[in-house]
Amino acid sequence: MARLLPVLLALLFCGYVRPISFSLPPNSRKCLREEIHKNVLVTGEYELSEAHNQGQVRLKITDSAGHILYSKEDASKGKFAFTTEEYDMFEVCFDSKLPAGAGRVPDQLVNLIMKHGVEAKNYEEIAKVEKLKPLEVELRRLEDLSESIVNDFAYMKKREEEMRDTNESTNVRVLYFSIFSMCCLMGLATWQVFYLRRFFKAKKLIE
Fold first, then answer.
1. What mean pLDDT do residues 169-193 have?
2. What pLDDT was estimated at residue 142?
3. Are residues 140 and 199 in the same domain?
4. Pick the residue with more confidence: 4 or 103?
5. Is the distance from CB of 84 to CB of 60 less than 8 angstroms?
6. pLDDT (mean) for 70-80
7. Are residues 113 and 46 in the same domain?
8. Which domain does 156 fall in, by range?
9. From CA 100, how far away is CA 65, in angstroms rounded?
10. Computed from CA positions of residues 65, 70, 72, 78, in that sequence, does the dihedral angle turn out positive or negative?
11. Which residues does 111 contact at the CB level (< 8 Å), separation at least 6?
């Protein structure tokens, strides 16, 4: 039972999503970054507080290559969704543009909720389509969550193996480089000895 406790706690807390709130000053840009696995559904909901003469706020979501996954010019309140094609770093940016002559305006409050993987699935809709009972829906959710945790562990194991292989390869290269450096130094020292010997003989300092 003690071994199952961490897994049960993970299953409970993974379903809890906390919104992110931050202030967006006029004519500023704030971005959030997150690493997400391949073939993962990502959903989000955002809302900006109203401000007089604040201008427009643009919302743009891009990957590390600069591909635009979602863009909204006049973002005040809405939702977005996309599915990742590769494991990558994704960036969510809010860009505020204040019109000329607007004067001094207060900051806007941005509330953002992002979900991915199991958290992004709409189990109520799945229950309606497949006609599942509440207990069956909860079991489906726990099954998907368990599968997600197993996949995360498998990914971490794969990364650990890749890092171990990289470390071993680096150690072998460093060893070969050290041997090569020692051989070069020994060769240079031997050449210096013979060169000085010939030089001193030429100067008749030694026989």
1. 93
2. 87
3. yes
4. 103
5. no
6. 88
7. yes
8. 134-207
9. 33
10. negative
11. 19, 20, 21, 46, 47, 48
